[in-house]
């Protein structure tokens, strides 16, 4: 596995952010801490095998075995009981995190049909969540073996203290944000 994005962070992004935000210590410069991939499975209450299929797909995408998420509360309207499996999630750190981020930014996002960029909306603490409509945009997934189309959320957790620094970090990593000015005029 190549560490292209990590090498780019250490050689280009870190010095650039350090200078831009006048940060004295390298350890205080915003960095990517982890990536969390979450998949809530539609129809999991009726068909328990859907969670297993989603976990297999996520394992192929992330290169790491996901944990199955259980319902915390019973909701009668959804025929959901407490403790039922309803989704899966995986947390990527270190090498797998850098490799996944590089693959997502350079391979997966450009494969999305009619892709014009992602919205530049961070959570107020420098973290960014991106929703993907289906798992088939990942090259690891064989389109013929997909049992059902399932979306997922990918959260980039950074050490940035605010949205400005988090946005600058993700933008320099290559995240294809739509133009902030054009987005605010809508």
Description:
- Strands 2-3-1-5-4 form a 5-stranded antiparallel β-sheet.
- It has 186 residues and is α+β, with helices and mostly antiparallel strands.
- The longest helix is centred in the middle third of the chain and has 18 residues, at 94-111.
- Mean pLDDT is 77; it is low at 181-186.
- It has 5 helices and 5 strands; from the N terminus they run αβαββαββαα.
What's the gist of this structure?
The protein has helices spanning 4-20, 49-62, 94-111, 163-173, 180-184, and strands spanning 32-40, 67-70, 85-92, 128-132, 152-158.
How are the secondary structure elements laid out?
Elements: H1 4-20, E1 32-40, H2 49-62, E2 67-70, E3 85-92, H3 94-111, E4 128-132, E5 152-158, H4 163-173, H5 180-184
Antiparallel strand pairs: 1-3, 1-5, 2-3, 4-5
Helix pairs in contact: 1-4
Fill in the keyword field for this structure.
single chain; 186 residues; alpha+beta; five-stranded antiparallel sheet; 5 strands; 35% helix; 18% strand; disordered C terminus
Tally the helices: what do you get? Answer: 5
Structural class: alpha+beta
Q: Which term fits the overall shape?
A: elongated
Helix content: 25-40%
Please give the largest β-sheet. Answer: 5 strands, antiparallel
Arithmetic mean pLDDT:
77
Distance between the termini: 41 Å
Radius of gyration: 18 Å
Low-confidence stretches: 181-186
Instruction: Summarize the helix and strand pattern as letters.
Output: HEHEEHEEHH
Number of strands: 5
Strand neighbour order, sheet with most strands: 2-3-1-5-4
Q: What is the beta-strand fraction?
A: 15-25%
């Amino acid at each position: 596995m190549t560490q292209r994005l990590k090498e780019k962070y250490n050689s280009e992004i870190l010095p650039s952010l350090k200078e831009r935000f006048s940060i004295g210590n390298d350890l205080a410069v915003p960095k990517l801490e982890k990536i969390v991939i979450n998949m809530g499975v539609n129809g999991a209450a009726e068909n328990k095998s859907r969670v297993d299929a989603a976990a297999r797909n996520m394992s192929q995408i992330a290169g790491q075995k996901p944990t199955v998420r259980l319902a915390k509360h019973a909701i009668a309207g959804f025929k959901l009981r407490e403790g039922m499996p309803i989704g899966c999630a995986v947390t990527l750190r270190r090498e797998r995190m850098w490799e996944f981020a590089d693959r997502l930014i350079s391979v997966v996002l450009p494969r999305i049909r009619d892709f014009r960029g992602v919205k530049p909306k961070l959570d107020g603490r420098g973290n960014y969540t991106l929703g993907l409509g289906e798992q088939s945009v990942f090259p690891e997934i064989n389109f013929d073996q997909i049992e059902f189309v399932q979306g997922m959320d990918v959260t980039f957790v950074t050490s940035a203290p605010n949205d400005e620094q988090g946005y600058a970090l993700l933008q320099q990593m290559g995240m294809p944000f739509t133009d902030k000015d054009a987005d605010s005029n809508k």
